[in-house]
Amino acid sequence: MPLNRRDFLNRSAATGAGLALAGTAGAVAGAAPAQATGRHGNGHGHGHAPKKYSFSVLGTTDLHGNVFNWDYFTDAEYDDKAHNDVGLAKISTLVTQQRAAKGRGNTLLIDAGDTIQGTQLSYYYAKIDPITAKHGPVHPMAQAMNAIGYDAAALGNHEFNYGIPVLRKFEEQCDFPLLGANALDARTGRPAFPPYSFHRLSVKGAPDVKVAVLGLTNPGIAIWDKANVQGKMTFPGLEEQAAKYVPRLRAMGADVVVVSAHSGSSGTSSYGDQLPYVENAAALVAEQVPGIDAILVGHAHSEIPEYVVANKQTGQGVVLSEPLKWGQRLTVFDFGLELVRGKWEVVTVGASVLNSNTVEEDPRIVRLLADEHKEVVGYVNQVIGTSAAAMSAEEAPYKDTPIIDFINFVQAETVKTALAGTEYASLPVLSQAACFSRTAAIPAGQVTIRDVAGLYVFENTLEARVLTGAQIKAYIEFSANYFVQTAPDAPVDVAKLTNANGTPDYNYDVVGGVTYDIDISRPAGSRVSNVLFQGAPIDESARFVLAVNNYRANGGGNFPGVATAQQVWANSEEIRNTIITWVQANGAIDPARFGSQDWKLTRGGVAVF
């Protein structure tokens, strides 16, 4: 149900309504120019000066390289328990339907970031046949989004994973601006990308409706992609940049201000106090910055059809919506405007989401990128080795499994080789790994690139950091917060055992090279015992090298000790590729080489499994 702005203001003034008033579950550096697009709308009224006008802003977010309803890791059509579908080809059909129903000139289409990383399709055109090569290809995401007709997109943090040159080339290939009001040139402090775009919707017999889209990205980029952005760009908080630009957009004549924010709505941060800025700040922006009508939310991979936040200064309701990741949903913001004394005023705002599994893929998009899809399918199905046994990650979140041991084994070997001949060569090497996908599997027999790539679905790179035995114990203890406290005599339901306090699987680390027990009957913070190195209690003052991914090393997940620990080695190759290269070089994967029972869940000294 659309939010009536006038009723909302009267109600919130009377009740003193707080933050959440309604919710449903479920460019070269420098001053960047404003972008403008002209549209020809209809007035939805009669005579020469219509008093009312309605239009819609359609939104996607966290597309993560999904063009087709296809899973390159399983080499099959995408499916999950809820039978969601993914990809821009499906989104295109939904967008076409909306434009047909409302008039092409009465819609805008925007995105909230994380576009060019996440599938083997996006990886292929960043690394294997890179868009940055001389006479290189046009990125499939740019081709699809251009064909669908996006008007603007905010930058996501994963846009920076492949380095600034790849991002700049992608930007150049897009027919729409990539916005980032809080992505600044480190040298000048000026915007490194356009902060906003300006769009005019033409209404017959009345003034144009001027819609401003302000793009905000995530401050965590400074941590997560430090290697790519340090000394080049800075990322201040969303609230302070919104407070700077929203009044400016209103002064420029914007009738409607929409924010596209690659930032969740929870007000939380995964990086603790490493940055003074909030990671998931979309609701804070709505609450603190007057003059915003709606916010397209991204980054958190949540589904929020409609969530209304009252601005503390004005009492005005701001409508937030986050469509589910990978093109599974399309957000539709519906705006109702009235012409008051020659100026358009927003009277109603509503938001809802459409499910992409209700439509077929747009054959136009399928045809457009059929060759690129075929190329990538061929690439991921190359056989690179064999495995002596099948390995699965299905039980990896709560049992020690060989498939996670394999990741730790390759990482530790890689770091040992890299440190050979250095002053750190004598230090023992431990390794951390997480279960990124419970469906990851290595078959017995022939192993392909996609089998191995499925173990490591993120573009993380490998580092080596020096930690003490005491820090290793604290690290494992922090990781054990992932489990739901379960009494010794309570039944164990594996479906309810993990992800305590919303902790994702990728923030539960197994540390290889030591053995330990986790007592899930005990409260978080006092669960880990019997931490042994080479069969003896770990020496808390001894030094160890931890092979660790760059996300974790740079503070992702807020694990203790590691972000401030001494870095003794790092490289720029994705861990996924490191594992693929290992398989190619060794030919055979044999769990007998690396599989061992190093950790277990217990209750009162008795193993759970």
From TrEMBL:
<keyword id="KW-0547">Nucleotide-binding</keyword>
<protein>
    <submittedName>
        <fullName>2',3'-cyclic-nucleotide 2'-phosphodiesterase / 3'-nucleotidase</fullName>
    </submittedName>
</protein>
<dbReference type="GO" id="GO:0046872">
    <property type="term" value="F:metal ion binding"/>
</dbReference>
<dbReference type="InterPro" id="IPR006146">
    <property type="entry name" value="5'-Nucleotdase_CS"/>
</dbReference>
<keyword id="KW-0732">Signal</keyword>
<dbReference type="Pfam" id="PF00149">
    <property type="entry name" value="Metallophos"/>
</dbReference>
<keyword id="KW-0479">Metal-binding</keyword>
<dbReference type="InterPro" id="IPR029052">
    <property type="entry name" value="Metallo-depent_PP-like"/>
</dbReference>
<feature type="signal peptide">
    <location>
        <begin position="1"/>
        <end position="27"/>
    </location>
</feature>
<keyword id="KW-0378">Hydrolase</keyword>
<comment type="similarity">
    <text>Belongs to the 5'-nucleotidase family.</text>
</comment>
<dbReference type="InterPro" id="IPR041827">
    <property type="entry name" value="CpdB_N"/>
</dbReference>
<feature type="domain" description="Calcineurin-like phosphoesterase">
    <location>
        <begin position="56"/>
        <end position="302"/>
    </location>
</feature>
<dbReference type="InterPro" id="IPR036907">
    <property type="entry name" value="5'-Nucleotdase_C_sf"/>
</dbReference>
<dbReference type="GO" id="GO:0000166">
    <property type="term" value="F:nucleotide binding"/>
</dbReference>
<dbReference type="InterPro" id="IPR008334">
    <property type="entry name" value="5'-Nucleotdase_C"/>
</dbReference>
<dbReference type="GO" id="GO:0008254">
    <property type="term" value="F:3'-nucleotidase activity"/>
</dbReference>
<dbReference type="InterPro" id="IPR006179">
    <property type="entry name" value="5_nucleotidase/apyrase"/>
</dbReference>
<dbReference type="InterPro" id="IPR004843">
    <property type="entry name" value="Calcineurin-like_PHP"/>
</dbReference>
<feature type="domain" description="5'-Nucleotidase C-terminal">
    <location>
        <begin position="383"/>
        <end position="562"/>
    </location>
</feature>
<dbReference type="GO" id="GO:0030288">
    <property type="term" value="C:outer membrane-bounded periplasmic space"/>
</dbReference>
<dbReference type="GO" id="GO:0009166">
    <property type="term" value="P:nucleotide catabolic process"/>
</dbReference>
<keyword id="KW-0511">Multifunctional enzyme</keyword>
<dbReference type="Pfam" id="PF02872">
    <property type="entry name" value="5_nucleotid_C"/>
</dbReference>
<dbReference type="InterPro" id="IPR006311">
    <property type="entry name" value="TAT_signal"/>
</dbReference>
<dbReference type="GO" id="GO:0008663">
    <property type="term" value="F:2',3'-cyclic-nucleotide 2'-phosphodiesterase activity"/>
</dbReference>
